[in-house]
Amino acid sequence: MQLFSFLSILLTAISVKARPVERGVFDSVGVLDDVLLLDAPAFPDPANSANTVIGLQAFVSLRQIDLGALTTGVEAALKTIGLDIGDKLSNVQERIRLFGAIGLSGKNVKVDVGGCSQLASLTTSGLPDLGMALQNVSVGTCGGAKQFTAQVTTSGLDSRTFNATVFPSPNSGFGVISDIDDTVKVSNVLDKVALAKSTLLDDPVPVTGMPELYASLAKSLNSPQFIYVSGSPFQLYPFLNSFIDTTYSASKGPILLQNLTLTNVQELLDFANSNGILEYKLAMIDRIHGMYPNKKFVAIGDSTQKDPETYGEAFRKFGGDFISCSWIRRVDGANNTDARFAEAFQGVPANKFRTFTDADIPGLQNINVAAGEC
Ligand SMILES: *[C@@H]1O[C@H](CO)[C@@H](O)[C@H](O)[C@H]1NC(C)=O
Ligand SMILES: *[C@@H]1O[C@H](CO)[C@@H](O)[C@H](O)[C@H]1NC(C)=O
Ligand SMILES: *[C@@H]1O[C@H](CO)[C@@H](O)[C@H](O)[C@H]1NC(C)=O
Ligand SMILES: *[C@@H]1O[C@H](CO)[C@@H](O)[C@H](O)[C@H]1NC(C)=O
């Protein structure tokens, strides 16, 4: 509900400026377009494990965005809840930019993935995911590097570079599925004003001890695939990605966000509703299971929204060989009752999940997750 209020503020501020622009089908990316290429997970092709498949995602929009009107609207909306932009104008503009972006359908995005034998090609959708492309693309054989750089092929006239990191991982070993807001980053999801402030104005702050914990998991689990699954809208991707890249540099990984568009108010309403987040996150865990059915995952989240319910349901669906362990941060002000966790983790053995307070964070490093402890 709090998130809904927050988003409705944004939505009101922006009004419905984001009108769909339909252009010629299968247009390639040109100088009038902007491309957001997201970091992506890669997995061995189930049909031929010598080949690599990437779950590649891109968003193509019109290059010009009227940041002035957008900023004025957001500034006014923030004032109504008592927040002043002050000297944070550049933060605000960077973070709201994509909320004003006008997605373009039928755009063909060609991506060259360093070290792989085939080019990838994606086509953006029409409504309701206007401008978004999310496809599994086969890129042939790739070298054994730990990461690949994917770069959008632009026309000769265009000197811009759009790139992202591809994280390949085998269908074995460990992975970490992690929430972002109030799990690795202080977001104050339970407080509308504080959430708006941490999301739009302030420099991001990690939950104390979590970067060190993730760095320790990166070692003890032998370079697990980190995948961040958050209910936030994809428009916040540049902000969240730069936060993870810098603050969680030892545990970088793709970030899966909701593909909400401002032309689809219903989707925004669904996002606001926590059950929508639960369904979305379960769908993302399904997707991850499809990519890595034989990996063991540690699922890390918090008690503000539906992470306990999501991870409990994922355990019941895929079993303890896949959801090996769930850790839930107890956030002050959230429902941290035994009754809630008992219900969420019904059917999950007590040694397969734990809740933790901030004081417990340093001690989590001593749990031998690789040996099956949780
Ligand atoms: C966007 O989200 C909707 C609803 O969750 C889903 O059906 C659709 O496949 C998604 N599209 C993309 C491109 O992610
Ligand atoms: C990605 O593109 C930026 C320019 O936008 C460039 O500075 C950077 O070196 C590129 N990264 C890689 C790994 O190619
Ligand atoms: C990509 O393939 C995996 C494995 O089959 C599947 O789980 C996932 O849903 C697919 N993703 C998309 C976007 O089609
Ligand atoms: C906490 O969750 C439990 C289980 O869902 C529920 O019965 C209880 O009413 C909730 N308490 C609060 C204060 O929301």
TrEMBL record:
Domain (Phosphatidate phosphatase APP1 catalytic) ranges: 174-329
Signal peptide coordinates: 1-18
One family name in Pfam for this protein: APP1_cat
Domain of life: Eukaryota
Keywords, sorted A to Z: Signal
Any one annotated GO CC term: actin cortical patch
InterPro entries: APP1_cat (IPR019236), Mg2+_PAP (IPR052935)
Molecular function (Gene Ontology), one example: phosphatidate phosphatase activity
Name by which UniProt lists this protein: Uncharacterized conserved protein (DUF2183)
Source lineage: Eukaryota, Fungi, Dikarya, Basidiomycota, Agaricomycotina
